């Protein structure tokens, strides 16, 4: 009888902290030993041949089997979405359980479990999307759900069907602060976008390229500043998702320099696409429409600088998969204006290879930073570390063996999502995860999937350190105690 279920030998093991060489032994889905020349045998042994073995990616921003604010269902369900993730080296996803107005949050969570349980092939947690912060949601549902392991919420400052007011943001932040959840915010100024979009379409400028004009940079910059101000008022940490533009990034950097607990995320589309990609004949540019939109090469440089200097903690896919013809991209055929196009691009499979190729291979970030940005920091921020996000004794055996020299020309036909196109068609990528292990199971090998539908497990998230306040609300609120009064919230 073998000593271990699996041994990966001759590995160059990279975590966010260090690089070592050795063998990794796995039993019952966990790493149980890491050592050079490990003694004993494995029921299965893989020779990594000196290749990099990295923690499986954690994708903390992806939309799977979710209805958008416009009522469009994602093209990927929990099977295709998680299979595609696994082929790209990701072993944990944190998609959203999305409340739409009038729905009970508990009911929403139950429905997402029903969807994911029979289909997911890798492990998953859920963020909540909160669009309807009723007294019942704030007073009972959110506190109970946080206790049950849903310790992060996304809120929107734009979209008619999703947006919450500044007043409601303060309500949500206060509950999150008190009960230990992290709030993620989509920061764009709704009225600026609405006003620009209205005038553009009225004047006949409905083509996809005008999406990037309607979603002007200042809309992101203003909302970023406002979201941070709201968080400061009540001393609540905050994470700004899918950041794309220079001024907003600088605002984030300055907030961090002041010692505020404000985190930032960016995504592949902001390093690999620009607004020019939407400038295609007819409605074809819809395939590149996402919000915020990709900007220009100067913004890409700012994104790289923030990845490099630690202003951004996470690089997520924001996989928002919509088919072009059958799905939500062009519901009115060639008469569709950018206002009706589902917002979002796919990227769950390409996320790690894209950052590896453009970042590590081109010397913009180190391998350690790569692991932090794609795996470790996600697990830390959302209460899954060290179970996920590292390769260490006691952690889940989630890792990927990378062929750093593998040249890949991206084509949708070779990807595993259900979208029908990739915005990165024809891109050259150097480096790809060739063997992927999830809780000790070799789920991807030699280009083949070896995982049962429903074999992924739900991960309740702990209340993360990232959600703890810094102890410094607005001075006026601190003054309450001078008057001998108890805190307001
Ligand atoms: N926000 C997202 O997080 N994803 C897709 C579109 C959007 O607005
Ligand atoms: Zn968003
Ligand atoms: Zn998203």
Name the features:
489 residues, alpha/beta, TIM Barrel, 9-stranded mixed β-sheet, 9-stranded parallel β-sheet, 13 helices, binds dihydropyrimidine-2,4(1H,3H)-dione, binds zinc ion, dihydropyrimidinase activity, Dihydropyrimidinase
Description:
With about 500 residues, this protein is α/β, with parallel strands linked by helices. It has one domain (about 1-489): TIM Barrel. It is built from 13 helices and 18 strands. The strands form 2 sheets. Strands 1, 2, 3, 4, 5, 15, 16, 17 and 18 form a 9-stranded mixed sheet that branches. Helix 3 (about 135-145) runs parallel beside helix 4, helix 4 packs across helix 7 (about 215-235) and helix 7 (about 215-235) runs parallel beside helix 8. It binds dihydropyrimidine-2,4(1H,3H)-dione (DUC) and zinc ion (ZN) (2 copies). The site of one zinc ion has 4 residues, from loops. One of its GO terms (molecular function) is dihydropyrimidinase activity. Belongs to the metallo-dependent hydrolases superfamily. Hydantoinase/dihydropyrimidinase family. Its cofactor is Zn(2+). This is Dihydropyrimidinase.
């Amino acid at each position: 009888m073998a000593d271990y279920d699996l041994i990966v030998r001759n590995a160059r093991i990279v975590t966010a902290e260090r690089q070592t060489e050795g063998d990794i032994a796995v039993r019952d889905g966990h790493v149980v030993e890491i050592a050079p020349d490990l003694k004993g045998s494995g029921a299965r042994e893989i020779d990594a041949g000196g290749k990099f073995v990295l923690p499986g990616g954690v994708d903390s921003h992806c939309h799977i089997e979710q209805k958008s604010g416009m009522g469009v269902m994602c093209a990927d369900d929990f099977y295709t979405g998680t299979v595609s993730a696994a082929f790209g080296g990701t072993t944990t996803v944190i998609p959203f359980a999305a409340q739409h107005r009038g729905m009970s949050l508990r009911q929403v969570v139950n429905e997402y479990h029903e969807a994911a349980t029979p289909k997911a092939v890798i492990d998953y947690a859920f963020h909540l999307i909160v669009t309807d912060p009723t007294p019942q949601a704030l007073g009972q549902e959110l506190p109970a759900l946080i206790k049950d392991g849903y310790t992060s919420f996304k809120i929107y400052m734009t979209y008619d069907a999703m947006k919450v007011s500044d007043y409601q943001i303060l309500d949500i932040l206060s509950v999150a602060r008190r009960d230990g959840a992290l709030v993620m915010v989509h920061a764009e100024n709704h009225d600026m976008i609405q006003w620009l979009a209205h005038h553009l379409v009225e004047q006949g400028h409905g083509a996809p390229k005008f999406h990037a004009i309607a979603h002007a940079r200042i809309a992101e910059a203003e909302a970023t500043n406002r979201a941070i101000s709201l968080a400061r008022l009540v001393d609540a940490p905050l994470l700004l998702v899918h950041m794309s533009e220079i001024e907003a990034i600088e605002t984030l950097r300055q907030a961090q320099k002041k010692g505020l607990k404000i985190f930032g995320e960016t995504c592949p589309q902001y390093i690999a696409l620009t607004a020019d990609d939407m400038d295609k004949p007819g409605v074809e540019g819809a395939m590149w429409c996402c919000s915020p939109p990709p900007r220009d090469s100067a913004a890409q440089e700012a994104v790289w600088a923030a990845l490099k200097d630690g202003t951004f903690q996470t690089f997520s896919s924001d996989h928002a998969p919509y088919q072009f013809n059958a799905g939500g991209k062009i519901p009115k055929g060639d008469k569709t204006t950018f206002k009706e196009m589902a917002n979002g691009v796919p990227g769950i499979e390409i996320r790690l290879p894209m950052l590896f190729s453009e970042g590590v291979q081109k010397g913009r970030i180190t391998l350690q930073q790569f692991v932090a940005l794609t795996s470790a920091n996600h697990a830390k921020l959302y209460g899954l570390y060290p179970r996920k996000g590292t390769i260490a004794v006691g952690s889940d055996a989630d890792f990927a063996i990378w062929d750093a020299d593998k040249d890949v020309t991206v084509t949708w036909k070779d990807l595993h999502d259900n979208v029908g196109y990739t915005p990165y068609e024809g891109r050259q990528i150097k480096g790809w995860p060739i063997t992927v292990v999830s809780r000790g199971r070799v789920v991807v090998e030699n280009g083949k999937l070896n995982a049962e539908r429903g074999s992924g497990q739900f991960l309740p998230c702990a209340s993360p350190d990232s959600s703890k306040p810094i102890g410094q609300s607005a001075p006026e609120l601190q003054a309450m105690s001078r008057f001998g009064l108890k805190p307001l919230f």
